[in-house]
Amino acid sequence: MPDIRVLSVASEAVPLVKTGGLADVVGALPGALADEGVALSTLLPGYPSVLKALGRARAVHTWPDLFGGPARLLAGKLGAHPLYVLDAPDLFTREGLPYADAAGRDWPDNWRRFCALGRAAADVAGGAVVVRGKAQRFDLLHAHDWQGAMAAAYTRYAPFGGAAVPSVVTVHNIAFQGRFEAAIFAETGLPSRAWHMQGVEYYGGFGMLKAGLFCADAITTVSPTYAREIRSPRFGMGLEGLIAERGSAVHGILNGIDGELWNPAHDASLAATYTARTLGRKALNTRALEAEFGLVEEDGPLFVAITRLTWQKGMDLLPEMADHLVALGARLAVLGSGDADLEAQLRAVAARHPGRVAVRIGYDEGLSHRMQAGGDAILIPSRFEPCGLTQLYGLAYGCVPVVARTGGLADTVIDANPAALAAGVATGIQFDGVDAQNVAAAIERTVALYGQKDDWQRLQKNGMKADFSWGASGRAYARLYRDLIG
């Protein structure tokens, strides 16, 4: 029997709803913690896609009025693990994206939607759900990003039935903070004492992530380097003072990946499966990817980029770098969406270099697997990267990561400098400073290394043998939970 019961609250989780890496982490945590004696239940908003996947579920709790309308708590399963869904039609039953409408505009009531999610999480963790006359209590509450962070604030300032459990808030990206006008405070249901600099007030407004970071018993980030970086103004995005003040309550725990889902040895989406011992079969995936993107077959390396097309990811440099990359005899395939101007620029680059640059706007999970398997190197020039998962997928698939030295990228990729090459431990290429000159130099290094076949294969095999499964991360979370519970 598990000795710890944890409620995890988040705005997305695979396979039910995903906009980014947060969903991968939230979906993987229950399985990662099960072997550590932790039973983790997940609470998600009742988006249409989630309710459809849940099917006929039983209601285990009701709220007559939860931020403007009735709501039910539905019970189901996330894989083999317990799942709760907040079915609040006035808040979540709408067409569009989880946080925005079909045109990409943020829902104006996002504060209300995710305050409701936080309020519900605090209630459930504190024992609101009663089954066969017995309250279903949890030992700890784990909230993710600004959308879940208010759960820690409600647990601290207005716990259900007077019961407050310890809480953890995980920062997946501190750039997204959930900041709103001060006027909403009166409608949050929080006591007046919460409106304070040492509370939910944030530069004269209402800060949802800030509230969670202040109220949580512990804060985690998704890599050790990012935990250090966000103590500085460059990376802290205005919250560096609070992070520094929390001191030893801040922990960096590296994300893992699902070694079953991301495994080229039995990935059904690939043209050919392969392992580190049968690495030659990877070329079959390269040929298939070239055909899928309409790229010419050449001897030079095939670079891939699978990313949001944003400034944070360094993608504003990609149009210029693509010209340089082609001049070096390489090719490029891009999958992503984001800034409309950047999307147009990349389409223009593809038009300039037919057969050597190809772009797919949008996201396709199966294609992302095929790109990792068919690509020789994956470009990740992020200006900041809390953890990053694409470089971990690249390592697993022998698609050599070319990364900026920041956050989780610095923690997971070993640069192919002369010493690391001589020792046989390198797994990728790192560079400092995300600007045109440094990215161009990193691409040049990659092309040169690709020409040294023995060294290149060693990079690929080292990455494929590295262990970035959830085992170590699961143990770290379980240790933190036990420390907080005492």
From TrEMBL:
Q: Which residues form the signal peptide?
A: none
Q: What class of enzyme is it?
A: transferase
What sequence ranges are listed for the domain Glycosyl transferase family?
296-450
InterPro entries per the record? Glyco_trans_1, GS/SS, Starch_synth_cat_dom
Q: Which residues of this UniProt protein bind ADP-alpha-D-glucose?
A: 18
User: What pathway does the annotation place this protein in?
Assistant: Glycan biosynthesis; glycogen biosynthesis
**Can the keyword Repeat be found in this entry's annotation?**
no
Molecular function terms, GO-annotated: alpha-1,4-glucan glucosyltransferase (ADP-glucose donor) activity
> Where do the Starch synthase catalytic domain residues begin and end?
5-244
**Which EC number(s) does UniProt give?**
2.4.1.21
Keyword Plastid appears in the UniProt entry: no
CDD domains for the chain: GT5_Glycogen_synthase_DULL1-like
Reactions catalysed, as given in the entry: [(1->4)-alpha-D-glucosyl](n) + ADP-alpha-D-glucose = [(1->4)-alpha-D-glucosyl](n+1) + ADP + H(+)
Print the keywords alphabetically. Answer: Glycogen biosynthesis, Glycosyltransferase, Transferase
**HAMAP family annotated for this entry?**
Glycogen_synth
- Cited NCBIfam families: glgA, PRK00654.1-2
**Family, per entry:** Belongs to the glycosyltransferase 1 family. Bacterial/plant glycogen synthase subfamily.
| Function of the molecule | Synthesizes alpha-1,4-glucan chains using ADP-glucose.
Name of the protein described by the UniProt record: Glycogen synthase
Q: Which organism is it from?
A: Novosphingobium decolorationis
**Lineage from the top down?**
Bacteria, Pseudomonadati, Pseudomonadota, Alphaproteobacteria, Sphingomonadales
